[in-house]
Amino acid sequence: MAIRTRQAKNKRDSNGVLTGRPGTVYDVDIKYTAPDGAKKSYTKRGFATKREAAQHEAEMKTKLQNPGQIASITSQRKQTVAAYLNDWVESYARVNLRPSTYDGYKKTIANYINPYIGGVALNQLTPAMVDKMFQQIIDKGLKPSTAAGAKRVLSVALSHARKYRYIETNAAKDTLTKFGKGDKTPDPYTPEQVKLLMQRVEGTVWEMPVILGGLYGMRRSEILGLRWRNVDLENNTFDVTEQLPFKVPPKTKVIEEMAPPKSNGRKLPITELARPFFLKQFAMQEVQKEQAAKEGKPYYDNDLVVAKPDGAPINASWVSSQFGKLLEDLEMPHIRFHDLRHTAATNMHQLTGDFYTVGEVLGHTLAGIGASLGLSMNFEAVTARYVDVRLERKKEVLDTYHGAVEKAAPAQAKEAGAKTEKGTTKKKHKEMEL
Question: Who's near 182: CB < 8 A, 6+ residues apart?
Fold first, then answer.
């Protein structure tokens, strides 16, 4: 008989979840002849119903009659989840995704998937096993969002395995674990808080990153990759056409080549509020060059707007990790550096209601800016193609937001949590090692 019944002490239901009760299960056992004439068998055990077993038996008999399918099935039965994922992340993710996304996928697979289900045969993976993996991750004290991230990566990888006919179903899509809403996203800063932050970081290494992040909503890598050759102080514009490459080693002195931006390049106006900061930054770097020459020290002229005192690039991970410490020292509400981008987006939209122009300023797709602002809207790609926002309109939107920041009364110490030892804090962050 190709289908056999047996009694299991802990039967799984149709979703692959252990019920904790004994019951009858069905195993499929098919005898077939390999292309070389050898007699072999194919077995898959534990179906919850005879109907499911019969359906699988019929599918496999058809495949096993095809010599070309036999070799594939044989190799697939031996392939583990870890072997497949390790190959997939290099052959697909590394080639098709952004370096930062590829790096994140690789870490998720190594830390949160392979240790739990890596040894399972790929075509034997069940939703119950994946659910158990989620529970083990959470039981270790990690956030549900970590388990949710593992699910996203695994689901994408298994969807590709299904297209390749390595597996019949995507086990990650049939799981029952609920992750909830996750961590609450910090509220974006108000114009008053943005002004206070600008005042508190004046004269420190944080001044220009806060201006570009908080007033323009630029991405961290775009800020660190902005070069003076793309800044036109005569016409008061600058172009975001490149970004700092992903994972620049901490002690790198010279950047040989920039990476392309995450989105299409964009031209942005330098407003009256922002212009003095550009001029101040340029003058400061000229002084640093002269000082280095006088002292016989090297100056690595990468043409960067935001750089270390010796001209070398600033490490992106330093910005993310130290920004939280900066806000803690200033006793200001905690946000991530990336949340300055959300701050700019939210304030521009609330002040102008111009959804499309805000997206153009930030270099977002329409769907992306909708998600950033928490708006549930559907956009077709053809819509984005015909949205042409002129520089004049970008300036109007930015002037409105920057004007609100300039006119705002700084948040009171009680609200924003300003320290009384302002000078000490500013000195600390002005002199801190980059």
Answer: 143, 144, 145, 148
Structural contact between residues 25 and 47, judged by C-beta atoms closer than 8 angstroms? yes
Q: How far apart are CA 85 and CA 174, in angstroms?
A: 19
Helices (H) and strands (E) in the chain, counts: 21, 6
- Beta strands (DSSP E) in 131-195 are none
Q: Are 200 and 426 in contact (CB under 8 A)?
A: yes
Q: Which superfamily does CATH assign the domain made up of 191-431 to?
A: Intergrase catalytic core (1.10.443.10)
Q: How far apart are CA 173 and CA 156, in angstroms?
A: 10
Fold of 81-174: DNA polymerase; domain 1 (1.10.150)
Tell me, yes or no, if the pTM score tops 0.85.
no
Starting from the edge strand earliest in sequence, which strands make up the sheet with 23-33, in order?
A: 3-8, 23-33, 39-47
Q: Does residue 7 sit in helix, strand or coil?
A: strand
Please give the single-letter amino acid code of residue 201: V
Question: What's the one-letter identity of residue 129?
Answer: M
Judge whether 302 and 226 are in contact, CB under 8 Å. Answer: no
Taking only the tens place, the pLDDT of each residue in 319-377 is 999 999 999 999 999 999 999 999 999 999 999 999 889 999 999 765 555 555 555 45
Residue 109, Cβ neighbours under 10 Å: how many? 23
Q: What digits encode the pLDDT tens for the residues 212-256?
A: 999 999 999 999 999 999 999 999 999 999 999 988 887 899 998
User: The tokens of 209 are what?
Assistant: 């990153």
Neighbour tally for 60: CB within 10 Å: 19
Pairing of strands 23-33, 39-47: antiparallel
CA distance 132 to 138: 10
